[in-house]
Amino acid sequence: MFSKTLTVAGIASLVPQVWAGFNSAANDNIAVYWGQNSYGQASSQQRLATYCANADIDIVPLAFLNVIVNPTTVNFASAGDKCTAFPGSTLLSCPELEADIKTCQNTYGKTIMLSIGGATYTEGGFASASAAQTAADNIWAMFGPQQSGSTVNRPFGTAVVDGFDFDLEAGNQNFVPFGQRLRANMDAASSKKFYLSAAPQCVYPDAAMDAMLIGQVSFDFLNIQFYNNWCGVNNFTPGTSTQNAFNFDVWDNWAKTVSKNKNVKLLLGIPANSGAAGSGYVTGTQLSAVISYSKQFSSFGGVMMWDMSQLYANNGYLAAVTAALAGGGSGSTPAPPVTTTSKPVTTTTPTAKPTTFSTVTRTTTTAAASPTGSLVSQWGQCGGQGYTGPTQCKSPYSCFCTGAWWCQCQ
């Protein structure tokens, strides 16, 4: 990848798509989620184009489309104040976002993804494979290239996103045919290259998206959440090639042996500020050490951060990430052997479902429960294959399983 600073200072306005946006051949991509204003201050989330002007940011997933079956809302926090409802619908038309998406793409060459799901997504998927495919076609008509004769409401007007990101954090069904249909629609489009990404937890296999990840849906990159879990960057051990907790090596093995796309890139997901997540924020030397270690793996594609409002409230952090990506590690060094150790998973409590365009955080968490019989809070993990933590839920909740790998208190 070309030097981003030189590019902007010199000739960015000529052909920005050459060096901006997601680059599948690079290991210094930076993705930052926008739309939820998790920092929580009224003035902390600026309009999208403000951030696209930053030369260090390549990918911006818009968070979130949290109603998929017959979408009635999109949730981008305070950005919704600039939107108006389509006639006879609660779905909002957002001309400011339409203009900003085009600016981000055409002026700054950014990759703009629409993230599907989020912590407040509650539909649980689709009743059947055919229903999932129908929903995928509808989402494609709403946010992909405009289709001749279509009367579907398009929240971003004539703007076309560059792809779709999956952030599923609870049990669901029939997302495989949904993802496959979106992929097919994207690959059949001749207008430009479209991308598919996902944001699993670092715990492998991912409880909510394993069905999509076991070679059934082709992803271009993953935004792996290495926080709020025992495998997060805060548990990285410097100076050793074998990690007992931090498990980028496990995901690299997934990329090479399980992923449908063997050239998939893995982005190291980290909190952008000390208050951006329940746990996992690291700074300075430790961040550089984690990135340097991760760059040994050929699947390493860069860094993802949650979220934009937190990042811009954390002065100097983006520069630290950029510097860490620029230093050490070429991606050609053989990766250390894959070594895994079973650990209890940090319990996760989804935030309450907000009203349309209210501010939400991705997740809130409690400390990881020890396997000594302590009680698990609502939504926390209480069982599943390989799980060694506590299995008894706090009153009045009970432990329910959504598959072999995941049980949670509900």
From TrEMBL:
InterPro entries reported for this sequence: CBD, CBD_sf, Cts1-like, GH, Glyco_hydro18_cat, Glyco_hydro_18_chit_AS, Glycosyl_Hydrlase18_Chitinase
Pfam family, one: CBM_1
Listed GO biological process terms: chitin catabolic process; polysaccharide catabolic process
Enzyme Commission number(s): 3.2.1.14
SMART domains listed in its UniProt record: fCBD
Region (Disordered): 330-355
Keyword Transmembrane in annotation: no
Residues of the CBM1 domain: 374-410
Subcellular location: Secreted
Domain GH18 per the UniProt entry, residue ranges: 28-328
Compositional bias per record (Low complexity), positions renumbered to this chain: 338-355
Family, per entry: Belongs to the glycosyl hydrolase 18 family. Chitinase class III subfamily.
PANTHER family: ENDOCHITINASE (PTHR45708:SF49)
Protein name: chitinase
Organism for this UniProt entry: Coniochaeta pulveracea
Gene that this sequence comes from: CHT1
